[in-house]
Amino acid sequence: MTGGGFGGPNPFGGQPGPGPQNQPPQQPGWGGGPGPQYPQAPTGGQQFGTPLPPPPPPPQWGAGPSQPGQFGNQPPFTGQPSGPPGYLPPMPTPKPARKPLLRLPSTKRGRRILLGTGAGVLAVALIVGGVVVFSGGENDGGTGKASEAVSAYLEALQRGDAKAALALGRDQPPDTSMLTDEILKQQMEKFPITDVKILGDIPTTDGGAMVHVIAKVGGIDSDERITLEKPPPGEGWKLKSAAMSVEFKIQDMNPGLAKSITVWDKPVPKSGKAYVFPGLVELGSSNPALEVGNSPAVGNADPTLYEISTMSRVVYPEVKVSDTGRQMVRDELKKALDKCAESTSLEPPKCPNKAARSDFVADSAKWTAPSDLEAVTINFMDPKTGKAMIIGNAEFGISVRTQSGETETGTFLASVFGNADMTQNPPVVDFDRA
């Protein structure tokens, strides 16, 4: 059989069409008329590369004429090709999708966009220690990410680069006399910052970021979250401040003691506030008789990353008599007692030695100054007065005439009560009457 499946010749020749083969003769329906005939496939015209689709299914036998649809018989769409029933026009070949337009920046304008337009200042990207750092104009030191700013700052501290560290702070300190490479390197020698790791760079609701960082500070693990404010337009990320303000609580201290306090061998500013890099704050005194430390009341904790997150510290200096100061007080005490021993009075004024016996002849005493002052101690110093307490015993030798004309010789154990004014150099010793 050479016919196609549509009741006509196969337009592709030779092969059977897709219709059913060897069909039985059609039987008339209940109405007695012949069954419907399938339409013939076109015999000529343009041939397509794929077989025509199968015809629609035949209507039910005995069915009446077809009814118009809900909207009636509609004319074909404009431009739709007509054809016999069952004929579907070929689908047009889809056009390739257009590539999205890629707008490359022009030479000058593009550079301005890429590098920033703040106040007409172009930024230049520098690679420092693996971190992109922007420089240019007033915005030196900004980075592309908040975590990069923290990493670059810690690296600058560790290598003792004061200028690079300061460039990573938005607010600049009013005094940089203690923000030098020399001091920074001394800080890092005692409490180095090592093994820095960034664990997170978390955006905040105000456009800033919170950087989670861990490191070893002086060999001790430290874990901190450092918050950075949103950069101004056209600027990179920076810390709010690269310098730590150190406030000295010295309002109630004797002015003579307060003025002797030093920070990294420099006097405390008159404002009572110094600016240093986070880390060790080396306190000292310009008076060798005194030593200065942080009050135990607020602890003597070693530096941590917490100081970088706050960039502030309050110091309650504790001023004490140094070992050198104690020896200085003993030397001055010896001089004062020697002076007392020069008197012939039974009770030298403002001296601890006295021989108040009724049969002694007035002004007949010959005193010998103590040679051993080990029993005398230099105790607590009052920070409000700057005076250290002197207390103990000292043995004087004495030779005195009596009313009977005899001379008595012996020793006198004097109770020594006094104080030393440590605001003076050397200390000034005076005695309270016992």
Chain-wise SSE layout:
Layout: H1 107-115, E1 124-128, E2 131-135, E3 142-143, H2 146-158, H3 162-167, E4 169-171, H4 181-190, E5 193-203, E6 209-217, E7 220-228, E8 239-241, E9 244-248, H5 255-258, E10 261-263, E11 266-267, E12 273-276, E13 283-285, E14 290-294, H6 306-310, E15 312-315, E16 317-321, H7 323-341, E17 366-368, E18 376-382, E19 387-401, E20 407-421, E21 428-431
Parallel strand pairs: 4-8, 9-15
Antiparallel strand pairs: 1-2, 2-3, 5-6, 6-7, 9-12, 10-11, 10-13, 14-16, 17-19, 18-19, 19-20, 20-21
Protein name: DUF4878 domain-containing protein
Biased composition (Basic residues): 96-105
Keywords: Membrane, Transmembrane, Transmembrane helix
The major β-sheet equals: 5 strands, antiparallel
Number of helices: 7
Q: Which geometry do the CA atoms define?
A: rod-shaped
Proportion of beta-strand residues: 25-35%
Order of helices and strands: HEEEHHEHEEEEEHEEEEEHEEHEEEEE
Number of domains: 2
Helix content: 10-25%
Overall mean confidence score, pLDDT: 78
Quantity of strands, as a count = 21
Q: Class by helix and strand content? A: alpha+beta
Cα gyration radius (Å): 52 Å
Unreliable spans are 1-36, 41-50, 61-79, 99-139
* Spatial separation of the terminal alpha carbons: 147 Å
Protein name: DUF4878 domain-containing protein
Keywords: Membrane, Transmembrane, Transmembrane helix
Organism: Mycolicibacterium septicum DSM 44393
